[in-house]
Amino acid sequence: MDETTLKFYRQNAEAYAGWAKAPSTRLRGFLALLPSGGAILELGCGAGNHSAVMLAEGFSVHATDGSPEMAEIASRRLGHPVEAMRFDELDAHEAYDGVWASACLLHLPRDELAGILARIHRALRPSGVFYASYKMGEDDGRDSLGRYYNYASPEWLETTYASAGPWITLTSDTNVIQSFDATPANMLHLTVRKA
């Protein structure tokens, strides 16, 4: 994890939690692919907006965030434990039916993403479902707030995912969002199944 990016979220947890958008419209489609009451790991849960929906739908949710400050805010909002956990601390083995990683793995240095994807693959049960979203681009860099992004292309992601384990692509689509620094960003949304 990029330390400057993590420091940003630790120092701006309250402001970011206050800005956090409504849950992704893709969440319902993701949940529909899981068994009723299944176990979900959320990485980078932020203010907890997605976890709130998962819990309300009766899923067993392990919510995590790399920023202890953000985890505390989300835990308070949810009335549910949120673990302060970095991606490289994920050591679970076939424990989850689904892994949800909305706009968080995009902060991983390019040379670290494959290793984290392999950890996610191992943490999923057979045929488990994994959703992640990335800011699109051709080379890594930082935004106006100093946050690091791996700025992924679809081709680079396909190669990186393949190096981490066998996956079946379920959906892949794009949209444009307004980032926390008020700039537009092209997002790529990828849902895959553990093969």
Please give a structural write-up.
- This protein is of the alpha/beta class and about 200 residues long.
- The protein has one domain (about 5-195): Rossmann fold.
- Helix content is about 35%, strand content about 30%.
- It has 7 helices and 9 strands.
- The chain has helices at about 5-10, 15-20, 25-30, 50-55, 70-80, 110-125, 155-165, and strands spanning about 40, 60-65, 80-85, 95-100, 125-135, 140, 150, 165-180, 185-195.
- It has a 7-stranded mixed β-sheet, with helices on both faces. Strands 6-7 form a two-stranded antiparallel sheet.
- Strand 8 and strand 9 (about 185-195) form a beta hairpin.
- Helix 6 crosses helix 7.
- The radius of gyration is 15 Å and the shape is globular.
- The two termini are about 25 Å apart.
- About 40% of the residues are buried.
- The model has no long low-confidence stretch (mean pLDDT about 95).
